[in-house]
Amino acid sequence: MAAVAAFKAQDFRAAERLFSEALQAAEDAQSRASALCSRAQCRIKLEDYEGAREDAQAARALEPENAKAWYRLGLANARLRRFAEAAAALQAAQRLRPEPEVLAALSGAQQSRAEAEGRFQWHQVYEKYFETGSIAVAAAKEQRQ
Q1: What is the pLDDT of residues 3-39, one digit of tens each?
Q2: Which residues contact 111 (CB under 8 A, 6 or more apart)?
Q3: Cα→Cα distances 123→19, 63, 115, 120, 130, Å
């Protein structure tokens, strides 16, 4: 398929156009959902996150059990800083198809949401550095006290 070749060649603009043509030609819901998911991925690469979000939502409406649609919806929402929506979509993707990349995206969305809400526990991130016993770390500990 020419659209896939364009995507692999990283010609995302051409791939987006070709997936749009595939969407127009699609005769069933599964083919439409597939074209929408692929076009959503192109739009993510093109940094058109709102367009990607719309495509992923449309694909999800056609196929509610489509893990790729949920995953792409989560990625687009995360880029749009809609972290609660991103986490919900990524949780659905993880439930449907547990994969490391989905789990990593989910973790990132949850951390970004917590940080945006002022709830992120930075001390947990840096805790290992404070346990190393280095002189600089010891000095930093003393300054905190």
Answers
A1: 999 999 999 999 999 999 999 999 999 999 999 999 9
A2: 120
A3: 45, 41, 13, 9, 9
2-144 CATH fold: 1.25.40
Please state the domain extents for the chain.
2-144
Q: What is the largest CA-CA distance in the chain?
A: 68
pLDDT value for 120: 55
Neighbours of 57 (CB within 10 A): 18
Look up the pTM and report it: 0.75
What DSSP letter does each residue of 51-82 carry, written as one string? HHHHHHHHHHHH-TT-HHHHHHHHHHHHHTT-
pLDDT in tens, 122-140: 555 555 555 544 445 444 5
CA distance 114 to 83: 9
